[in-house]
Specification:
Elements: H1 2-14, H2 48-62, E1 65-71, H3 76-86, H4 88-97, E2 98-104, H5 113-117, E3 129-134, E4 139-140, H6 157-165
Parallel strand pairs: 1-2
Antiparallel strand pairs: 1-3, 3-4
Length: 169
């Protein structure tokens, strides 16, 4: 029994945010400071299955996490996140630790096989929905937190960076 408790404690500590890398310091303090117009990062014509497979292969090869960004160009929070990904302080961090693939989910009616593959079979609860995936195991790392940035407009730029950094070990 004590071995089981020790192993459980070890696993909990291994995945806790305390083991995460520190987030980059973001120099902007509000989203009005992002380049405008905000990007429209979702390609409606993209073959989602192929794009995710290619991004996973690249992430695995480069020893990065896979970040699957599910959203739509109609979504202001998705576009803010796209602008944040272009912000130099965060871009350097993301380029080093993540392989990002953006997948258009329409009005939650397209490319739903992608979230379903990771166990999200109910209707998506918000956009963007972010899936942080270990490309070696193809396992979702942020289950229960996939819509944490679906209200990005109410967050600070630093809070977005902090959220993204917590998954990097």
């Amino acid at each position: 029994m004590s071995r089981l408790l020790t192993a459980s404690l070890f696993m909990l500590l291994a995945i806790s945010p305390a083991n995460a890398l520190p987030a980059p310091k973001i120099t902007i303090t509000n989203f009005d400071q992002l380049a405008h117009p905000l990007p429209m990062p979702y390609n409606e014509q993209l073959n989602a299955e192929k794009a995710v497979a290619a991004a996973r292969t690249k992430a695995k090869k480069m020893h990065k996490l896979l970040l699957i960004d599910l959203g739509g160009n109609w979504c202001p929070d998705c576009r803010i996140l796209g602008g944040m990904f272009d912000q130099p302080d965060l871009k350097r961090f993301m380029d080093k630790y993540y392989e990002i693939v953006t997948i258009d989910v329409g009005r939650f009616d397209k490319n739903l096989s992608i979230p379903a593959h990771y166990g999200l079979t109910d209707r998506l609860k918000g956009a963007p929905t972010l899936l942080v995936v270990d490309p070696r195991t193809d396992k979702l790392l942020n289950g229960g937190h996939v819509t944490a940035l679906a209200d990005a407009r109410s967050m600070t730029p630093q809070a977005i960076a902090d959220w993204l950094a917590q998954w990097v070990r």
